[in-house]
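The protein record quoted in full:
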Amino acid sequence: MQNRVVAASFWTLLAVLVLLGETASFIAHGQKDQAVYFTNQSNVYLGIVAALAGWRLWNGRREPSLPVLTSATLFIVITGLVYNVVLAPTAEPKHGFAAFSNAVLHMATPVLGLLGWLVFARHGALRYVHAAIWLVYPLGYFAFALVRGMFVTSGDLRYPYPFLDVLELGYGGVAVNAVTYAALFFFLGAALVTVDRVLGRRGSRVPGEKGLPGVSVPSVTPTQKR
C-alpha cells in the first residue's frame, strides 16, 4: 500500500509539473504555434499519461499499460536528448518564465519521466516490436512539419527545428536527418525494452495484486479427515 501511494504521488506531481512548465511556456511565448513543437507535444502527452497513472493508482487500479507508459517515456527522453545535445549549444539565453519553462520541459520532465518509468512501472511486458511501433509518432511528426512548411510560408516558424528546415537543407538533407533520427530513436526504444526485460525479472515495485512481489500469500495445508 505504501509503495502504491508513493507511485501515485509521484505521477500526480509529475503531471502538475508538466502543467506548470507548459503554463510558463505559454506566458513567455504566447499561444501561437506552441503546439507545433515536439517539446510541447511530448510533454503534454507525458502529463496526460502521468495524470492517468496517478488517478488510477489513487483509485486502487493499475497504471496505464506498459507500452503506453514507455512510449511517453521514450518521447520525453527524445525531447531531452535532442534539445540538450543538438539545440542547446546554439540556443539564446532565456530569462523569467522562458527560463523556467525551458528547465522544466527540456530537463526536469525527461529525467523525472525516465526515473518514474524505471522505479514505478510494472516491467516485463515489452517486446522489441514495440520499438518499431513507437517510431510512428516521431516519423509522423517529421511528415507533419514538412507538410506544414508547404503552407506556412511566412513568419519565423515555418520549420520548428533547424534539422527540418527544407530551405537550408533541401528535402534530401531533411530525409537524411529523418533516417538518422529514426535509427537513433529505434535503438533508444530497443534499449528501453532491454532494460524492461532485465527489470521484469525483479518484479513490480508497486505491490498490491496477486502474484506481485511484496505480497505474501500464506500457504494453507488442508487438514485430513479422520
Remarks:
- The CA atoms of residues 17 and 104 lie 7 Å apart.
- The first helix runs from residue 2 to 29.
- Confidence is low (pLDDT under 50) at residues 207-226.
